[in-house]
Amino acid sequence: MISFSLQPTTAQTPPAAAATATTRSFLLPYHCAHQLSSSSFPAQQLHSGRRQGYRVRAIDAAQPYDYEAHLVNRFTQSTKLKIAIVGFGNFGQFLAKAFVRQGHIVFAHSRSNYHSIAQSVGAAFFSDLHDLCEQHPDVILICTSIISTESVLRAMPLQRLRRNTLFVDVLSVKEFPKNIFLQLLPNHFDILCTHPMFGPESGKHSWQNLPFVFDKVRIGDEESRVARVETFLDIFKKEGCTMVEMTCAEHDKYAAGSQFITHTMGRILEKLELESTPINTKGYETLLNLVENTASDSFDLYYGLFMYNKNAMEQLERLDLAFEALKKELFGHLHEVLRKQLFGKAEEGGFRRPMLAKLPKNGTPLLPPQSETVANKNN
Ligand code: NAP
Questions:
Q1: What is residue 195's three-state secondary structure?
Q2: What's the pTM value of the predicted model, to 2 decimals?
Q3: Section 186-199 average pLDDT
Q4: Which helix (H) or strand (E) element contains residue 100?
Q5: From 88, 91, 171, mutation site for ligand 1 pocket: most ligand atoms within 8 A of C-beta
């Protein structure tokens, strides 16, 4: 930081300006001082302190009356982003509200017309992608269904964007968008893959302590590009999210064993058409909540979790095996009771209830439950 003042050397120095110069003090960032010295005034003026009626007088300088406002504006602009949400459905609208609340400028585009919804949340809606891109957003946020992402990205007029635009996605699977981005986006675009681990239902009251997963897939070295990513991540930090940096592959592994199982159980329970009763237990209430949380998401979303996460199939098979194993255990007990009734004490000690093994850990090859193998051997 450099601080100095330039004043006319003539006797007609306006008293007000002179007073201001001695009472107000500003610190100029180095580049501003440099700009002044190199463009507004010849070098000698600054070095010799005298020429054409100007000289360096004090370290406290009078600034234009709106100088502070100008600085504040510049600071605000550097922390506010122009975010273009592509895919303005359920989740896109939900995110937009938080972005607007934090003072960012939000543009939206979608297949359907969400003009009035966008207006009501403080965003500007563009039905034409070209028009949206010509706004030169800092961030393009892909918020479309997983299954439509590739076609949406292929249809983007990338040539209308600034060359270092940051692409972010919030898809619930991560390896798939990462690969599509790397494949379709020229090297000069930055890429950040994210997954807020909550939705309009689970995050409707607050995002406090809810996990936000991110992977900085490709970010340019320039300071401004690094800062832009941090500004974007700050939105979620400020809302209280727990920030979790991990690779897209790690995310997909964890998510298949947690999120996909959750959605699958929710959808199975939904098919049972569970109803509230006058004697709900806490556990049952949890199940009803699970149905509410998962059933409000589109089937496209659930299907995307299955189709575009290579770990999902294994989880579905494990669920199948677990259900079969559980039924066998139950029927084994039942069988034992029936045999006791039929044969009484005669068989005591002669019949052994089938011992059911636990499923192998995630990621290990799935074999039929041990009891089946034992039973087959005994046959
Ligand atoms: P979604 O059903 O996964 O996606 C709906 C969005 O996709 C809408 O904007 C829709 O546009 C667009 N879309 C669907 N088919 C399209 C097509 N053929 N061409 C162009 N656009 C198409 O529901 P969502 O809940 O809004 O989720 C959006 C994204 O956020 C998904 O990738 C999801 O995985 C992710 N996400 C969702 C949640 C959540 O809790 N909901 C949480 C985290 C992440 P129109 O509405 O204009 O038709």
A1: strand
A2: 0.76
A3: 97
A4: helix 90-101
A5: 91
